[in-house]
Amino acid sequence: MLKRAKALFAVALTALVGASSVGQAAEVSTRQLNMPQGVTEVSQAAYDIHMLMMWVCVVIGAAVFGFMIYVMFAHRKSRGVKPANFHEHVGVELAWTIVPALILIVIAFPATNALLKVYDASEAEMDIKITGYQWKWQYEYLGEDVRFMSSLRTSQDEIYGREEKGEHYLREVDNPLVIPADTKVRFLLTGNDVIHSWWVPDLGVKKDALPGIFTEAWAKTSEVGVYVGECAELCGKDHAFMPIVVEVKPKEEFNAWLAEQKAAAAEYASTIGKAWSMDELMERGEQVYLTNCAGCHGVDGLGIPGVFPPMVGSEVTMGPIEKHIDVLVNGVQGTAMQAFAAQLSEVDIAAVVTYERNAWGNDVGDMAQPIDVLNHKNGQ
Amino acid sequence: MAHGPAKGIGRWLFTTNHKDIGTLYLWFSFAMFLLGGFFAMVIRAELFQPGMQLIRPEFFNQMTTMHGVIMVFGAIMPAFVGLANWMIPLMIGAPDMALPRMNNLSFWILPFAFLTLASTLFMEGGAPNFGWTFYAPLSTKYAPESVNYFIFSMHIMGASSIMGSINIIATIMNMRAPGMTYMKMPLFVWTWLITAFLLVAVMPVLAGAVTMMLMDINFGTSFFDAAGGGDPVLFQHIFWFFGHPEVYIIILPAFGVVSAIIPAFSRKPLFGYASMVYATAAIAFLSFIVWAHHMFTVGMPIAGELYFMYATMLIAVPTGVKVFNWVTTMYKGALTFETPMLFCIAFVILFTFGGFTGLMLSVAAADIQYHDSYFVVAHFHYVMVAGAVFSGTAAVYYWLPKWCGKMYNETMGQVQFWIAFIGFNITFMPQHFLGLAGMPRRYADYGLQFADWNMVSSIGAFMYGAAQLLFLYNVIATIRNGKPVSDNKVWEGAEGLEWEVPTPAPYHTFATPPQIK
């Protein structure tokens, strides 16, 4: 630990303004001290105005603090100085009111231009709807029928120290957002429950995802790569555990990827009537549960007393299966239990319902099939 | 008429004496400071390493919330009200506060507010966990049950603050000694007069915000719920319309303290008194029209965004005037560096540093990267801790001999200063780097790339925490067996009416008002 601290101070001394340029997810540097320049026009604009402001502050700071330090040495009583008695000077006072005001007016021009860039989401070639959920993101390629959830891939064991932390600890998701290079992509953001904020430093995007309101942001980059971001607005318990991973692919690769997603969605729709076995449902259900439910209801199904109800022996998991499916599909009004109809596929809902009824000593013994879930949705 | 204090606990429960009430406020605020500080230690201990080691994420959120609420409303604000109670009557030559019974009430409801708040930690579902800014709907639809107690205690704190401010305004307007015109008042009195007006203006707004929350939670309204025709962003506008003046409520009295202490140890009058008054008023005015710079990522129209950016940048002008005035006060003085002066010099340097990052934050295009990151955490701790807390500490050391007639241990004071100063910077300087590199605030856990600076920051925090225990010890040791002081004027360069009464200050002072030339 001491060694690490020592190494650190060496870093602090040598790499004063060490802006790492490309935010490849693979290159995790603990030495980054400055804002990344990022890979978009907006992130570059933010970086430039940030550096300008910093240098203005450094110059003024050096002058003021330098003068203070001089005064502290030169005008100490121990050197036998006699205090002067002046206490005002109109000229000086006017000067240090007017000069800073002029500096600010000059700065206002680049600051305004940079902001105009941030707000210029016009003429986008592609729209992606981003919805913040407690505690994951949903991405929907508007007009393409492709929609998926993106959740943290790091295991609870890594978080709670029962397992070595991987290289990409808390910087990895199951399904990253994929966008094409050299394309102006507009993000339309909203929230499903509370306020989230979608922040990817390298893209220069941070925008709040507000429930019931749409906000917009945009990105265009020619740099193919993987960029990592975070949720930036406190959104409850797992605020720190809903990272963002964006993969920028060359256009052709992106088109191939998108076609693949569409095909998978079509295939899924055609197999929805298939009957699943208990083992298949339990296996898939466990995965779905760990990703989507364990955050509140616990890996062991015990919940958090007073906040999130337990699954073990509960009225819902042990009661009629229609009610259980309904809770998953529609959520519970007035509680933190959200509607999962838009987040999970019919197969996933069927699997997790089955899992909850037959895990941790719950022994109802019945199963939900995807078609039951679909019928429940349509029957409304 | 000259009688001493009552005996026993009754002295403190029923007192209407401004000095007793000032003392109560100061001890109460210090107790809250230690409690809020303890929560900060829990936060920094958990963040010492990546991964969850000590507490769970849901409890982490309770800690950040309680730390913020208790520090702002329980520690800093009451500390300055305590100083106002003690010093304003002494500084303007008044025998007491204008409304002494209300003074008693405004203090004694405070402990109940904070008992209510602290009790939420033991409730089912836990304490408030939505941050000190309690954004809806996290604080309404998704809040723990204890949110109702949180709202109740906010109301009591607000009532206490409003009563305290009305009292301060009434005292300053009506009870100045003959000849003490407004422009002869010490700057501490001026800054408090302006602060009190800010409080009277914005505490009701906070009360309105929490009442709307209460209605949304319990009575089926939808002020902040878009599904019912409301707007979650409305909450933020209301909150910050209170919240931005609130940060000046915290810092303006600190400016007053520094403007008293720097001239004393420079042995030279304050430079630019009139411009200090105007700058304070200008800052107070601007504080009402810049609130949405806390909301640059919320999706405001660009015209709104530009307006709030320009208005916010303007604050740098009057703030700069103040800093230049303090530095020029020191220029060609005869400086000595006793503990109060050390804290004030550190105040000027570190507060200015926090002002610089504030100016950077005002630039909306750069703020998309700073917003809600550790850069912001670093920024507001530079102005709140190195600003308000340092100046509060300076004030205690400066006036303690006058209050209790005994001198504190100077060596211990200076040791405390250096531990606090170094610890503070080790804690918060690296948080700038963390924020710029992409670490959001209020994170219970973080990726490995943030590990090193978090560890450094935690070490600094423990140092800074230790310095506060030394402070407590030094103050208690002074009161119990400090070296007696008998001079009216404890410090060679100190100026003002408070130094004309005997040391220690008698229970009743200025029964006959002094004449001001």
Automatic annotation (TrEMBL), chain A:
Keywords tagged on the record: Copper, Electron transport, Heme, Iron, Membrane, Metal-binding, Oxidoreductase, Respiratory chain, Signal, Translocase, Transmembrane, Transmembrane helix, Transport
Q: Which GO terms describe its biological process?
A: ATP synthesis coupled electron transport
- Give the EC number(s) under which this enzyme is classified: 7.1.1.9
Q: Where is the signal peptide?
A: 1-25
Location comes to: Cell membrane; Membrane
TM regions (residue ranges): 49-73, 94-116
State the name under which the record lists this protein.
Cytochrome c oxidase subunit 2
Q: Which organism is it from?
A: Gammaproteobacteria bacterium LSUCC0057
TrEMBL record, chain B:
Q: Name the principal localization, coarsely classed.
A: membrane
What Gene Ontology cellular-component terms does the record carry? plasma membrane; respiratory chain complex IV
Coiled coil where? Answer: none
Record's keyword annotation contains Ion transport: no
Q: State the pathway, as annotated in the record.
A: Energy metabolism; oxidative phosphorylation
PANTHER family registered for this protein in UniProt: CYTOCHROME C OXIDASE SUBUNIT 1 (PTHR10422)
- What's one Pfam family the UniProt record gives for this protein? COX1
Entry keyword annotation includes Membrane: yes
GO biological process terms, alphabetically, are: electron transport coupled proton transport; oxidative phosphorylation; respiratory electron transport chain
Gene symbol?
A: ctaD
**So what does this one do?**
Cytochrome c oxidase is the component of the respiratory chain that catalyzes the reduction of oxygen to water. Subunits 1-3 form the functional core of the enzyme complex. CO I is the catalytic subunit of the enzyme. Electrons originating in cytochrome c are transferred via the copper A center of subunit 2 and heme A of subunit 1 to the bimetallic center formed by heme A3 and copper B.
NCBIfam families documented for this protein: CtaD_CoxA
| Bilayer topology | Multi-pass membrane protein
Its localization reads: Cell membrane; Membrane
Q: Which residues cross the membrane?
A: 21-45, 65-86, 107-127, 147-175, 187-215, 247-265, 277-296, 308-328, 340-366, 378-400, 412-433, 453-473
Identify the species of origin.
Gammaproteobacteria bacterium LSUCC0057
Reactions mediated catalytically? 4 Fe(II)-[cytochrome c] + O2 + 8 H(+)(in) = 4 Fe(III)-[cytochrome c] + 2 H2O + 4 H(+)(out)
EC number assigned by the record: 7.1.1.9
Return the protein name. Cytochrome c oxidase subunit 1
**Which molecular function terms from Gene Ontology are attached?**
cytochrome-c oxidase activity; heme binding; metal ion binding; oxidoreductase activity
Question: Entry's InterPro entries?
Answer: Cyt_c_oxase-like_su1_dom, Cyt_c_oxase-like_su1_sf, Cyt_C_Oxase_1, Cyt_c_Oxase_su1_BS, Cyt_c_oxase_su1_dom, Cyt_c_oxidase_su1_bac
> Which UniProt keywords are present, listed alphabetically?
Cell membrane, Copper, Electron transport, Heme, Iron, Membrane, Metal-binding, Oxidoreductase, Respiratory chain, Translocase, Transmembrane, Transmembrane helix, Transport
The similarity comment for this entry is:
Belongs to the heme-copper respiratory oxidase family.
Q: Which residues form the Cytochrome oxidase subunit I profile domain?
A: 12-517
